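Cross-check.
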Amino acid sequence: MNEKIATDKLEEDVDSTVFNLYEKREKIFTRKMEGFFQNVRLYTGWPLLFGYFLSPWLMIDGRQAILFDLPARKFHIYWLTFWPQDFVFLAWALMIAAFSLFFITTLLGRVWCGYTCPQTVWTAIFMWAEQVAEGDRNARIKLDQAPWSAEKVFRRLLKHGMWVGFAALTGITFIGYFYGIRDLIVDAWNLQLPTVAIFWSCFFTGATYVNAGWMREQVCLYMCPYARFQSAMFDKDTLIVSYDAARGEARGPRKRSADPADLGLGDCIDCTLCVQVCPTGIDIRDGLQYECINCAHCVDACDSIMEKMGYDKGLISYTTENKLAGKGWTWKRVKVVGYFCAIVAMITLFSYTMFTRIPLELDVIRMRGQLFQEVEGGRIQNTYTVKILNMDLQDHVYSLSVEGLPDPVLIPDENISVAAGEIGEISANVIVDPDRLNDVNTDIVFVVRTQDGQYSADSDSRYLGPMPLKER
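Predicted model, tokenized:
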């Protein structure tokens, strides 16, 4: 009998565990909150939105300010033009961004997630649309639980219409960075938009609609890797949003005029407002959790309650573990100094390389399928395809020469004009006297120079000839 009871209890425990592991997601109805940190989020979020939506419409030197022209293999970023050969700069930029994120996270916690992450900013816009269409938190909960009616259908259609509209604007703008926003709008108006542009516009519209409208905190909790590895960058002096348990416990409701010390209570009145405003639905009073994105909604919410109760603010605040333990705070930590030095060094090298780079590239390919050709006078000829890439913003005239051969004759022996941002391609013949060659293979160098001598570039190749007389 006892064994049967124990077995039944074990099965109940297993069933409960399985149920918790695969528990259905509960909807989060966030309460609107205003305060100091929410105003800060406005000042960080709006520049991101304006920059994203307005940058494609800016014009510089007769072209779109930011345009990733994949067919032409040109990447215009304001006054700079990058080519596939410049992808090393992209690697450098990503490394600088990564180390900057490590530095900021170690020093200030997840402020990137809370204030400037696109997922956070776009989700805030979708939540605002939800509040406009369906009302405040209590109204949204009531509407969600109410049976379907004409009003519920209207409010849901209004909400999803606003979501789809903003998602479409986001998707179209994103494709405009690659297609050209003006050409995209004109071609769409004339029903001449290519299928690939339609597909990707719809794809990014749908991705924005799903991520910011439906998934929201699920992206932060399960899809974003940053939430998982951030703990490796945290230490006891990292600034985090935290609840002062020593001051707040024991929590409990009381009248505003009551003295919490007489009731044996702390400053926390257990109003749960910090939970109601949290976009990820956590209770910050449970301690540091990876779901917390440091958005400070709970800080503003708690400060507003403390102010109403006549208590000191800061029960929930940006603080550190050392401060909560009564210790001091210092930025002089090995990780912080190391990250900072690495960032300064990389930015210095990146800037130097960027501003001293030569906007000229030379590519020489020897004609395949033949060794050499005999021409008039017993001389021999090798043929090459020469490509001159003018990465400058101005047109240039170039001269081409070849080094490493005895008295070579280059045909055509004339200057080559290449427009700004274009590739000049010619077929070049190099003719020499075979009796003056010392080997079957001769290393040579093609050199191209601007007419004013400002820029030059070179490319290695080989010259093939007959076996020298002394070896025959």
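The chain is about 45% helix and 20% strand. Residues 36-231 form one domain. Passed to J.P. for a second look.
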